[in-house]
Structure formats: C-alpha cells, structure tokens
Amino acid sequence: MALTIKKCSISDMVARPGGLFCDEQQVSGIILADRSVKLDPATFTKTILDGLIQQDKFIGTLKYFSAEDADVDPNYTESSTGESTKNTLGIKKWNFMFNKGNCFQNEINKLDKSERYSIFIVYQDGSILGQLMKDGRVKGFNVKTFVGIKKVKTAAEGGGSTLRVDLLPDAMKYWQGQSALVESDEIDFTELNPVTGLSVDITSPLVASATSTKVLVTNQCADSKVSGLTTPANWKIRRNGVLEAVTAVTEVNGLYTFTHAALVANDKISFEIYDGGYAVYVLDTDYYAGKSSEEKVA
Question: Residue 161: its pLDDT value, please?
C-alpha cells in the first residue's frame, strides 16, 4: 500500500450545500458497541449482528426517558487585530436519563468510567448514525461513559439513573464531517433490545434417576415470567462442572421442563443458556442470558 505525502492540514474542500437534503428524524435511543466493531454495509446481516450481541460486543438500543446536551464549545484564539483561529472542534457530550429503578441502575453502573465503547445514534425510522471509515465500513463514534448518582423520588419530578456519554476528541472529526446514516432491510434498530438478564430457578427436587427437571424462568429485574425459550440446543445442563445436552424442552407460562440424562446421587447440577457456544439466547430481536444456581442431587 502506497503512502501519500501530507502537504497541509488546512481544509480546502468545497462545500456543496445546494440541492435536496433529507431532514433528520427524531432520535429514539442509543446503541453502545465495542470500539472494534465495524459494520460492512455490503455484507451486513442479522446473523452477524446476533453474533456481535452474543459476544457482548453490541448493546441493543437503550431507550432513555430524557436527554440533554452537555457540549464543550470549540476553543478559539483571537489575534490583536481581532482575527480568530479555531484551536479545537469542541467535544460532544450527553446526559441520558433513565427512570427504570434500582436493578437497572445495578446493570448500567457497569458502564461507569468505561473506555470500551463507541456509540451509534438510533433514529425513529430504524436507521442508525455512525462514523464513515475510509474503507467504507461504518462504526460507532468512540466514547467514554460515566454513571451519575442515582436519584430516588423525593418530589414530583421523580428519580432515576444518569448515563453520561462523551465523544473522544478523535471522534469529533467524524461527528462533524464524516458520518453516515445506515439502515437494514432485515432489522429496525429501534426494535433491537439489549440482553435481558434472567433468573433461572430449579423448582423440582433433584433426585437420583430423574430424567427431567422443572425450572422457572423469570425476568431478573421484574416479576414477570419469560416464555418461548424452547430450543433444546440453546440450553445445557452442567453436571459436576461439565456441560451436557438438554434433549427436550417444554414450557407452560414460564415453567420449563428440561429432559436430560439420568441424575446420579451427589451430582452437582445447574442449568444455563448456551446458544452456539455463547451465553446469550437469540429470539428474533430479543436476547436473554441466565443460569441457575448449582444444586446437589439427593
């Protein structure tokens, strides 16, 4: 690959602001992606996206209660004759507020002081805004994330959690002048949900020779049962630390019956999601993760 001599850093590009331009849609939410994630418009599929989510490299659309800009303005220097020089592009920052309770706060606090992520902006029409790379791929704008102090309802205005998102200086050139709006013919990004944590509770006694076990699956952060996770290949039984197949799954109102090899006295048993080698179950645009506590066979 050849190198090109860079002669000057002063922009001499010609603006072409005439013609017709599309107005931007209202923002619906944000997606956080690992900074290594780069989407190729030519090869992007829902299957590729599912794999990124299963690898914990893509957090589905976070829909906030409210948002406010917290931008740092560009820095200028003025000469003695009043001529201005622009020294920095400024920094784009937001405070996103969520009114979702303490369990959500426990999860989002894992993003505090994180330098792992980039951000895609999600619009109401299902498209996303990211930075356009020189090779034609699209990635999120690199950010740092911080979690503010949780507020509780002590007055009419209510409480909630705050996620602060700051674009990095190296992302500002893309934000200001090299962004891309992309959409998929397979998925509406407003419908792409973050991974839901599950409570997986063994409800039937574990006894020797038993070949089936009842397990209750509920939402980790709400008193609601979760249905539809009935693909046997996406579940595993862990016996004495070793994964084994679940051969059949039935479910009625969140109560699952797992069929498996016969239990043996003193075995240590647990059940967990294991979808294609990952701890995340894919169900259309919903994603689930969870495992039970380990119990001993009588």
Answer: 96
φ/ψ of residue 51, rounded to 5:
-65, -40
For residue 138, pLDDT over 60 is answered with yes
* Residue whose entry in the numeric block shows the structure tokens 């498209």: 127
Cβ 199 vs Cβ 133: under 8 Å: no
- Taking the C-alpha atoms of residue 38 and residue 58, their distance in angstroms, rounded to an integer, is 11
Model's pTM, two decimal places? 0.89
Count of C-beta atoms within a 10 Å radius of residue 17: 5
Which contacts qualify for 85-89: CB closer than 8 Å, 24 or more apart? 88/169, 89/169, 89/172, 89/173, 89/176
- For β-strands 161-167 and 93-98, DSSP reports them as antiparallel
CA torsion 101-103-107-108 (nearest 10°) is 10
Q: How far is 198 from 226, CA to CA, in rounded Å?
A: 8
Q: pLDDT digits over 172-201, tens only?
A: 999 999 999 999 999 999 999 999 999 999
User: Positive or negative, the Cα torsion across 223, 196, 192, 256?
Assistant: negative
Helix (H) or strand (E) holding 209: none
Task: Return the structure tokens found at 275.
Answer: 């979808």
* Alpha carbon separation from 37 to 138, 150, 173 (Å, rounded): 9, 30, 19
